[in-house]
Amino acid sequence: MQHRTPLIAGNWKMYKTSSEAMETAAQLIKRVADADTIDIMIAPPYTALESVAAVIKDSCVSLGAQDLFWETEGAYTGQISAEMLVAAGCRYVIIGHSERRQYFGETDETVNKKIKAALRVDLKPVVCVGETEAEREAGQTFSVLDKQVRMGLDKYFIDDLTSLVIAYEPVWAIGTGKTATEEQAQEAHQYIRSLVEELYGNTLSDSIRILYGGSVKPENITGLMARPDIDGALVGGASLDAESFSKIVKFR
Ligand code: PEP
Predict the structure, then answer these.
(1) For a Cys staple, 171 with which of 132, 161, 181, 205, CB 3.0–4.6 Å?
(2) Quick check: 152 and 97 in contact, CB under 8 A?
(3) Which residues have C-beta within 8 Å of that of residue 213, sequence separation ≥ 6?
(4) Tell me: the pLDDT tens digits for 24-54?
(5) Is 50 known to be catalytic?
């Protein structure tokens, strides 16, 4: 839909040292300098946040982090707070990525606490939801999305959620080369949007951006973006290379 500015976000996962990340970021900002009707975000590893922030300063690319911890500060070895991310230059934070749910014990309850922590400091949360292959095959896609969205977004008032972004990422499509068909993605996005309407009303459901993630590439982005409820993409593998990511950014 025209009134939602598309967001193309790159999740660099545990790839790139600080200097490699700076190099990719520098190549990217040159290639996307003319992409002014779209929001662009890259999420390098924590160790590269400040160095990449310096490279993309004054460009149209924003910085994001891949996770956060909900406390402000304290004896939590290895954790990073929302306040620290803002100080490092972040404007977005990815929350509840399926790799964190799968390998690091992330639950809908921890996702909920992390969203609250991000909103406390005006970081825009990009909250990931999506079903596994077994859940899809068992016909549970909508019930999984229902639970993740209801519990993840529980206890918020509508005003709190205006900056929230949801990323629909079917787990079976992440890093596998299998992309959901445009129909499968649109159907899931439409379901999520209707659920947001039921929970928070149509002002929020009309304005909230719902990204698709799962093996997005320059070859499949245009078809996905043509669907009415797909407002952008969360890109893993193809965001690591400035040329392929900039082609995705310039999908039109
Ligand atoms: C992701 O990590 O969110 C993702 C969608 O990865 P990929 O694009 O590599 O499937």
Answers:
(1) 132
(2) no
(3) 11, 128, 130, 167, 168, 169, 173, 174, 233, 234, 235, 236
(4) 999 999 999 998 799 999 999 999 999 999 9
(5) no
Q: What is the pLDDT of residues 124-162, one digit of tens each?
A: 999 999 999 999 999 999 999 999 999 999 988 878 899
Q: Write the CA distances from 129 to 18, 73, 99, integer angstroms.
A: 29, 27, 11
Could you say which of 73, 169, 197, 243 is catalytic? Answer: 169
pLDDT digits (tens, 9 = 90+) for 169-205: 999 999 888 889 999 999 999 999 999 999 999 999 9
**Residue ranges covered by each domain of the chain:** 69-240
Domain 69-240 in CATH: superfamily?
A: Aldolase class I (3.20.20.70)
Which among 97, 106, 131, 135 is annotated as catalytic? 97
Distance 213 CA to ligand 1 centre (A): 6
